[in-house]
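Practice problem: predict the structure.
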Amino acid sequence: MASFLKKTPAAPGPAIWISVTLLWGTVFFFTSSWMLGVASGMLGTGYFRLSGGELFRVYGLHIPVLLIFALTAMMVKNLLDPQGRKQVERQKSVVQGKRERLFVSFAGSIATSFFFTGLTASTFLWSSGFTGISVDLPLSVIVVAAGFNILAGLAASLLVGIVFIAAKVGRT
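Answer:
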């Protein structure tokens, strides 16, 4: 067991990239969808009121978007850091308790939640033509919803941090 802990972790492969992207992409699809409705109503502009069936129809189309995003992100990361040294060092720092004790990647949570709102809105706009759903998402609605969705990202980051604390990850 001790030799296992001393080994250098391998850079994540496609299965990790896809599973993590599907997990967070799904979480943020639903939080973004909710925030798009909230922002549209609050600003009194645009239109975003979908039934559960419509939401899941678009989610079915969102899955391939997430898969393409995961694989593209992995390829770009591999071009910038072919051996995955930065990611491996980050993983080791987290396990050793040198990084992120409560929030797991605070800045990453903000950027990810903001980005996924834009990706979700794009999927709704792109798919509306052939799914028959009716949406109108002006840029102002998307930006306000993305701002609101940051709270969801921080809550998710905090939840993961609490799980790490409970599981005693990073304690020496």
